[in-house]
Amino acid sequence: MANKPIVDFETIKKDLSNTPKPIQVLNENAEIVDQKVFDSFSDDDLVEFMKKMVWERALHEQTMNFSRQGRMGFYAPTEGEEASEMGTVLAMKKQDYLLPAYRDIPQLIQHGATVTEAYLWSRGHVVGNKYEARAMMPQIIIGAAYNEAAGVALGLKKNGEDAIAFTYTGDGGTSQGDSYEGMNFAGAYQAPALFIVQNNGFAISTPRKKQTAAPTLAQKAVAAGIPSVQVDGMDILACYKVAQAAREYITAGNGPVMIETLTYRYGAHSSAGDDPKRYRTEEETKPWFDKDPLIRLRKVLEDKGLWSDEDEEKLVDEYKSSFKDAIKEADAVEPDTVSAMLKRTFEVPTPEIKAEIAKFEEKESK
Amino acid sequence: MAKKTYIKAITDALDIVLDEDPKTLIFGEDVGKNGGVFRTTQGLQEKYGEDRVFDTPLAESGILGMATGLGVTGWRPIPEIQFMGFSFEAVDQIVGQQARMRFRFDGKQTSPVTIRTPYGGGTHTAEMHADNLENYFTGTPGLRVVMPSNPYDAKGLLISSVENNDPVLFMENLKLYRSMKDDIPDGKYTVPLDKANVSREGTDITIVAYGAEVNEALKVADKLAEEKISVEVIDLRTVSPIDTETIFKSLEKTHKVVVVQEAQKMAGVGAQVASAISEDAIMSLDAPIGRVAAPNSVYPFAQSEDIWIPGEEEIEAKVREILNY
């Protein structure tokens, strides 16, 4: 008898790569690959999606300009990720609770923060965090937001609200233990949470393939018993539809969902000046630029006679001028004081802090 | 009034806060049906239901991340970390997230979380179950650290902690859970989170202690009283903040001090107390500040705890040394 092993691990391993094709509505050549879904959008919808992406790109360009002028603090470039970011956030509702990471400032603004507040956050001023939006401050600790999203979702469920928690991380973020713990907790309590992984190819310089042996990042939800899906993150129609379907599924009481958007970070990790040429070549980058989400939808709109270069230029000017107003507003905000910082450390100041408040208030009054 | 153990006093406090505030939630590993591995939450799930008292998956960062999220959606979480050594898994949520929440949002969002966790030596447990870890957390702005030394304080301090709108790390002394019994009031009462207690008045020397060491200090005070040496014992109750006012007031009377802790000596609560005295009350003293602390080794394995943890003997020796300076 042949010495047949009790288990065929190689086949099991190969099967892991049998994953569904990422969901797409418009392909990279701007061809409609899902006519039924495409037809569910009105012309106005399509124009609105285009405007949002043009807005995000303009925000990116203007903010990078401010950054070069030394007028910004920490800022994470978003160019290339417009479909993924706008498509998912536009499917959410005001009452939903957003747990963003630092590259998710455009979503935070769409969810109700002002551009002025976003700029103040970047500069490091507390006034930037006092937005009306139902949202956590952009998370710096990768993975932490996933844990917190499970708690927010459980809280919303216990409140009996028609609302979900939605949170973002990147490809690198899926390697954090916390991102698994968060999904696992949300799954265990069937809490209304939407976990979005924006797979933009790089965690600073480390490429996606070095993060994990898992064939897809969407699979990372499987172990937690959470349905997950890959979507073309350069196709705003697909991102929107998938996020909308996820929200409907979640609010119907079915527990959490995870979405992996396949997107690309055109620029550097942050405005601090790392150079992507150190870790990726033009040959690698070019195909992604060709998949640009704006090019794709622009072509469809132009074919329908709904969009022109002039329309777009006019919009970009309008947006950029509003960002210039926003930064002027940010410039006008009073600087923080040490006594104020001490006062917001505890609701009831400790004896030591009380003494320090008195000391600094005296100094500040001079 | 009824005689109650330290652990029963804690259960009492939890029962009261669950009953009074429908937004309070208790969760952690095995806290539901099992009532916690020490039975601290015994009977609470039965009484308040699984929506209010529930088990979690086995992941400390997940537990405290959930607490953070529940806190910003209007709930008042009282998570349990089964043993304090496991809290290292969740340091980001305590220090990086909850303690900064009020500061980040200028109070628009807060973290009204009370983390309960057992700590402390002398019960011969497995590794990572007994360490005194307060020193890692007392340097965290935005976080209060509470360490009751007796059943009365445990109940009153826990109720105050839960009612406080900022995060509190509530450290429960493992050895005292069942070894200590006191008459405590049946109903609700609170103990302030920024006031040390003069556990015993005296005139010759002050011992500043907290947690289980308060009881060791009181034994020394009893013993020295037979020799007509009058020892004042101050129980810090909270190690962040530290009530230096009560300490300074005592030193004006006794002029001598010994600072006692169960934790290793390096960079801890005792060092902070000694530093505060040096900075603001040195002129009250007529002898050096005495310190009693554990040796700076890694926390010992179970069998060697007794030769390592400072107790009555070490405190008495140090008190005599300072008195005879």
TrEMBL record, chain A:
Domain Dehydrogenase E1 component: 50-333
UniProt key word Ion transport: no
InterPro entries: Alpha-ketoacid_DH_E1_comp, DH_E1, PdhA/BkdA, THDP-binding
Domain of life: Bacteria
Oxidoreductase is among the record's keywords: yes
Pfam family, one: E1_dh
Cofactor(s) demanded: thiamine diphosphate
Stretches of the chain forming a coiled coil according to its record: none
Keyword annotations from UniProtKB, A to Z: Oxidoreductase, Pyruvate, Thiamine pyrophosphate
EC category name: oxidoreductase
Catalytic activity, EC: 1.2.4.1
Reactions catalysed according to its record: N(6)-[(R)-lipoyl]-L-lysyl-[protein] + pyruvate + H(+) = N(6)-[(R)-S(8)-acetyldihydrolipoyl]-L-lysyl-[protein] + CO2
Self-association and partners: Heterodimer of an alpha and a beta chain.
Role of this protein: The pyruvate dehydrogenase complex catalyzes the overall conversion of pyruvate to acetyl-CoA and CO(2). It contains multiple copies of three enzymatic components: pyruvate dehydrogenase (E1), dihydrolipoamide acetyltransferase (E2) and lipoamide dehydrogenase (E3).
Protein name (Swiss-Prot/TrEMBL): Pyruvate dehydrogenase E1 component subunit alpha
Automatic annotation (TrEMBL), chain B:
InterPro entries the record matches: THDP-binding, Transketo_C/PFOR_II, Transketolase-like_Pyr-bd, Transketolase_C
Alphabetical UniProt keywords: Oxidoreductase, Thiamine pyrophosphate
Required cofactor names: thiamine diphosphate
SUPFAM superfamilies noted in UniProt: Thiamin diphosphate-binding fold (THDP-binding), TK C-terminal domain-like
Organism: Companilactobacillus baiquanensis
EC number of this enzyme: 1.2.4.-
Any matching Pfam family: Transket_pyr
Full protein name: Alpha-ketoacid dehydrogenase subunit beta
Domain Transketolase-like pyrimidine-binding positions: 4-179
Enzymatic class: oxidoreductase
GO MF, any single term: oxidoreductase activity
